[in-house]
Amino acid sequence: MTVAIDRATGKRSGDRGPRPGLGRRLQHSYQKYWYAYAMITPVVVVLGALVLYPLGYGLYLTLTDADSLNSARTIGVNEIEATYKFIGFDNYADILWGETAYDRFWSHFIWTIFWTAACVALHYSIGLGLALLLNQKLRGRTFYRLILVLPWAVPTFVTVFGWRFMLADSGIINSALDFLHLPTLAWLEDTFWQRFAAIMVNTWCGVPFMMVSLLGGLQSIDSTLYEAAEMDGATRWQQFRYVTLPGLRSVSSTVVLLGVIWTFNQFAIIFLLFGNTAPDAQILVTWAYQLGFGQQPREFAESAAYGILLLGILIVFTSFYRRWLNRDEQAAI
Amino acid sequence: MSTTTVTQSAAVDQAAPAPAPGPARRRGERGLARTLLSHGLLTVASLIALFPIVWLVFLSLGPDKDDYLHPGRIWSTMTLDNYSFVLQETNFFDWLKSTLIVSLGTTVIGVMIAATTGYAVSRMRFPGYKKFMWVLLCTQMFPIAVLIVPMYQILSELQLIDTYLGLILVYCSTAVPYCAWLLKGYFDTIPFEIDEAGRVDGLSPFGTFFRLILPLARPGLAVAAFYSFITAFGEVAFATTFLLDDEKYTFAVGLQSFVSEHDAQRNLMAATAVLIAIPVSAFFYLVQKNLVTGLTAGGTKG
User: Fold this and answer.
1) Could you tell me how many helices (H) and strands (E) chain A has, helices first?
2) How confident is the model at residue B300 (pLDDT cuts 50, 70, 90)?
3) In b/e form, how buried is each residue of A9-44, taking b as 16+ CB within 10 angstroms?
4) Which of A19, A43, A62, A281 to pair with A94, CA 20 to 30 A apart?
5) Closest to A210 (Cα-Cα) out of A268, A267, A131, A146
């Protein structure tokens, strides 16, 4: 809500100038920075200890052949020293163009990209559609809104169990298909339908967030803009195209970015829906987890290398996304 | 020169009340057909949103573990036995305790540490500010796969596997930047004049923050707290990997353990799921509106 108001006044971070009466304080700018740095210190320390150090350690692991057989471990009272050794970039080379690279990495990569694109497109379009419907003067719209938020309100690991009951071989969905004389589907066994089911469940879980965010965006669009458009004889479609969409731009760009990141990293839905039973429906995140913790021996180094690759993909994507967003605007962050 | 504070007019605008819901376009012009279509679409969407949950609740009332295959039977044999079994015979309360310790621990640490940072990035333009914001955003996109292996190694070296503290520390790696980001969005909506008034009265930036801004930001703090709470509450991957003892399981892990432990007793799983979902969902409804505002505001504003 604050976003669009900010846009309406045309203020951007780049427009900030020195304010009158600040001269004295500017003289002590060093003092002010000191305060700022002191205030962010706790977070910097926590991020350093809990994110950067593990990340560095993980990077180091990817350059070794560590697995659960040669890492330091304790069996009973015996402490066994780590015996893994440094092997350079072999892990990456093996993952990206080793003998079975397609089966292990690229097939999952393609599916992950497809999964992310399909889910975010569905989240966004359905979310926008529902937000537009809810943004009308309509009897009972608060009621609809409360119900439509429900998939978001219930923890994912709970709802996925509900879906598993429904998708089971003789669950309600197949019973309904049977009742309609349609073929029943092996939702949790056949690769195509596994993927279909995963996208379906994730869409169901992800739409409410988009809907509520976009509804907030819609409500902050100045209604006089629509009046003006109507005066100029704009059709409904033109109003949507030239007033609504630009008005939603800042909200959209944020929720799409968050949606891509969340969907790309969506662990719980696929992990809980299939467990270890669906190698072909695993996206890269769950696949990396399976390498590191879902099998014996645990391939720590390879799993970590997957992790680093995933992070690389996301950072590259985000940089391009921001550059694309900012092509005609000053960077927001 | 890029020192403090955002322009005043922006701050004033942000403090202004939200525009009245519902655009003024096409007043009274909407045809009956369109209204009916809207209601139709919304009803269908509501049914889709509602059905999996209702179905879960319905199945939880069936006494037999195979009732999910024969839902028709449940009508005549409906019972609350599953619930009493789950509450009395399983580790439900152990799991509740673990979940609360881990989630509340994460929440308290996350919010406490993040608050000053959120304030600093909201009000001060210090050198390195943009890079810092970028780092905060980057930590949001860490796939669990990046940290899970090194975290596992580090925690096992520190003997923190299968402890609450270990899990709390892991969750803080996401909760802290998340809260900082969210709180920044909230602090941005508090008029900057308040800070100035505090400064004029001789308060240091710390004094301004603790005495003036923090009390005003209570709703924002609540939202950040709730967000980190449900994030920790619903996390699956780390909890599955780092907790070994089934009395220490969080709900997310405990629910999975039903599959093996109770021979896929789906009726009990459903009852447990419902028991977990009710309080969280109820609480969620209280704060849901603020959640989105906080998140998108934090994300889009400089």
Assistant:
1) 18, 2
2) very low
3) eebbbeebeeeeeeeeeeeeeeebbebbbebbebbe
4) A281
5) A131
- Complex confidence, ipTM: 0.77
Q: How far is CA B59 from CA A68, A211, A245, in A?
A: 41, 29, 43
Top pLDDT among A27 and B124 is at B124
d(CA B8, CA B24): 29
Of A281, A278, A306, the residue nearest A291 (C-alpha): A306
Interchain proximity B141–A13, CB inside 8 Å: no
The verdict on A24 touching B (C-beta cutoff 8 Å) is: no
Instruction: Flag whether pLDDT at B11 surpasses 50.
Output: no
Q: How far is A99 from chain B (nearest CA, A)?
A: 23
- Interface check for A200 against chain B (CB to CB < 8 A): the answer is no
Using the beta-carbon criterion (under 8 Å), do B56 and A307 form an inter-chain contact? no
Cα distances from B275 to residues A44, A132, B236, B280, in angstroms, run 38, 34, 18, 9
Find out whether A256 and A124 touch, Cβ atoms under 8 Å: yes
What pLDDT score does A117 carry? 95
Q: Is the distance from CB of A126 to CB of A206 less than 8 angstroms?
A: no
Residue whose C-alpha is closest to residue B82's, from B225, B273, B221, B301: B273
CB contact (8 A) between residue B19 and residue A220: yes
pTM of the model: 0.80
On whether the CB atoms of residues B149 and A320 are closer than 8 A, the answer is: no
- Cis ω for the linkage preceding B23 (within 30 of 0): no
For chain B, positions 6-35, list CB contacts with chain A under 8 A: 6-10, 13-14, 16, 18-19, 21-26, 30, 35
pLDDT at B243 exceeding the cut of 60: yes
* A313 to A112, A308, B258, B274: CA distances (angstroms): 11, 9, 36, 38
Task: List residues bridging with A79 in a β-sheet.
Answer: A74
Helices (H), A168-248: 172-179, 191-219, 223-231, 236-239, 245-247
Residue B18 has pLDDT above 60, yes or no: no
Confidence band (pLDDT; 50, 70, 90) for B85? confident
pLDDT at B260: 60
Mean pLDDT score, B117-135: 85
Q: Which residues of chain A have pLDDT under 70?
A: 1-32, 72-81, 328-333
